[in-house]
Amino acid sequence: MSKIRKMINNPGIFVRDYLIKKHPISFGGYKISLKDEEAVEHYESNILHCNNNDNDIDVVYTWVNDNDSNWTNKKNYFYNQLIEKKQHQYFNDSASNARFNNHNELYFSIKSIRKYAPWVRNIYIITDGQTPNLDNFEKIIIIDHKDIIDSEFLPTFNSHVIEAFLHKVKGLSKYFIYFNDDVFLAKPVSKEHFFRVNGLASFFLSNRSLKRQVKAGHITPTLQASINSAKLIKDKLGLDFDIDTPLTHTYIPLNKDIFIDGH
Q1: CA distances from 228 to 88, 126, 224, 254 (A)
Q2: 151: number of CA atoms within 13 Å, CB side?
Q3: Which of 65, 99, 148, 256 is the least crowded, having the fewest Cβ atoms under 10 Å away?
Q4: From edge to edge, which strands make up the β-sheet containing 140-144?
C-alpha cells in the first residue's frame, strides 16, 4: 500500500527509487555499489586514520598545451620524420590530436587538490618548454623534460617515456602521487588513502579484463601498454600466472625508491 501511495503522491521519487533498486549506483572504474562505497569510507575513516601518516607527499603532473604553435610544429616535424623513414609502429590514435588537447583541466584538478588534500606538500608539473597559467596557486614547481629525461630520449611525446623518469624530479618526496590533468578529487581524502603507515602504496584496479578486451578486438595504445607491462612483470618476477586486470584511470601513488631499484 505504501508503494502505491508513493507512486500517487510522489511519482518522481517512486520512479527514482525503482530505477536505483534495479540499477544500483556504481562508482568509476571500480563499478562498486553505493553500499560498498560507504563501507570503504567507514573503513578508511575508522581504521586507517588510527595511525597518522606523517610522511611528506608531493603530487606530480605531466602536462602539455597543444595550443602552443612551437610545440605543435615540433611534434608534427618528428611525426613526419617517422612516417617518411617508415620507422614507426603505433596505433593511429596514439598520435591523435585528442591525446594532447588542453581544456584548462589542470587548473581545476589542482584546485581540487588544494581543497580536498591540503596536506600535499609540493605540486610539480612536467612540461616540454611550456608554463601553465597558475598564478593563483603557491608551491607549484615547473619541471622541463630536459631536466629529468636523458637527452638520447628527447624530444618525446610519449607519456609512458615521461612517466618512467618522474622519480628524477629534484627535491621530489619519497612518496608521491602521479596525477593526469583530467583527474579530480571530489571529496576530502587523507594521506592514508594513498599510502599506508608502513609506506605501502595503494593501487586501484579496474573491473576490466585484458584478455576479454583483446578477444573483443579493442586494441588501444593503453591496452597494449597494459599487456606489455603485465608480460614484463611476469617475466621479471617469474610468475606462473597471467596478470589480467589493469589499473583504472585515476591517481597513482608511487614510491621513488621503487623507480630507482627498477633502474
Answers
A1: 17, 25, 6, 20
A2: 0
A3: 99
A4: 140-144, 123-127, 57-62, 175-179, 252-255
The model carries a pTM of: 0.81
Give residue 63's identity as a one-letter amino acid code: W
- Using only C-alpha atoms, what is the Rg of the chain? 22
Alpha helix ranges (H) inside 54-144: 69-85, 105-116
Beta-strand ranges (E) seen in 104-239 are: 123-127, 140-144, 175-179
pLDDT tens digits for range 224-239: 888 998 998 889 888 8
pLDDT digits (tens, 9 = 90+) for 127-162: 999 999 887 788 899 999 999 999 999 999 989 899
* CB-side neighbour CA atoms (13 Å) of 68: 17
| Chain centroid, CA 100 distance in Å | 15
The SS3 assignment for 232 reads helix
Rounded to whole angstroms, the Cα distance separating 144 from 128 reads 6
C-alpha cell at 202: 595503494
Question: Measured between alpha carbons, how far is 1 from 23 in angstroms, rounded to an integer?
Answer: 23
Q: Which of 32, 57, 23 is nearest to 195 (CA)?
A: 57
